[in-house]
Amino acid sequence: MIILRILSLFLFLYLLGQGIVQAGEIEVGDPTIGVASFDSLLSQAGDNPEDTIANIISYGLGIVGVLAVMAATWAGIQIIIAAGDEEKVKKSRMMIIYAMIGVVVA
Question: What does the pLDDT read at residue 42?
Answer without folding.
Answer: 57
